[in-house]
Hints:
It is a single chain. The chain is of the alpha/beta class and 251 residues long. The chain has helices at 32-42, 59-72, 86-95, 104-108, 111-120, 153-163, 184-193, 207-215, 226-229, 235-244; strands at 5-13, 16-21, 24-30, 47-51, 77-80, 99-102, 125-134, 137-142, 147-152, 167-172, 198-201, 221-224. It has an eight-stranded parallel beta barrel, surrounded by seven helices. A hairpin with a 4-residue loop joins β8 (137-142) and β9. The chain is globular. 46% of the residues are buried.
Amino acid sequence: MLAKRIIPCLDVKDGKTVKGVNFVNFRDAGDPVALGKKYSDEGADELVYLDITASHEGRRTFVDLVTRVAENIKIPFTVGGGIGCVEDVERLLDAGADKVSVNSSALRNPHLIDDIASRFGSQVCVLAIDARFTDGDWRCYVNGGRVPTERHLLEWAKEGVMRGAGEILFTSMDHDGVKTGFACDVLSRLSDELSVPVIASGGAGACSHFYDVFTRGKADAALAAGIFHFNEIGIAGLKQYLYDRNINVRL
């Protein structure tokens, strides 16, 4: 059995790490390079960096940041935000990223997933999906959770895998930042119905939430932000907690 992964997520805005609640009300969480190095040294399995206000003007700044991150950490990291074509992917991989995450751009142009997978391999392409439970189903959102779409979580995730996405990163907008636990029921369904790893995001507030998402939620990896940024839970302590409860993690 593959080890379960713990993945700190760093949302980057204007060169700084920020953290919000339900995708709004952001506060400063520190330098993204220094935080990334800290998490790498503490035993995180991977990192995710998301340029949450990715504008065309800010793209070069973010590429420079990716270069600095690659120089300072020893673990794989994924980069997302504002990726609209394979040339964007190439720039970020050349800067040192291991994988890229696509979200809004893939919903608008699903062929982007095919293009990335065919050119760089499925292992490079992470399909991120932000969804909120509305009218009895999980509806996908774009533009950093600002705009609802007609697409639904499960059917879009399945199409993404069919097109070549190597992983699905699902964030429950309802759970984001509220620290009451992950959306385990729908995560379990995703894990059962998809042939690729599922990364859970949104809701981490205690070590027990990670245990729940790996057992009841059947997730392959769990992503969190604020609890790590503000030193509420340490990565080493979290991994020991999981290991003591027979969850296969790398210590």
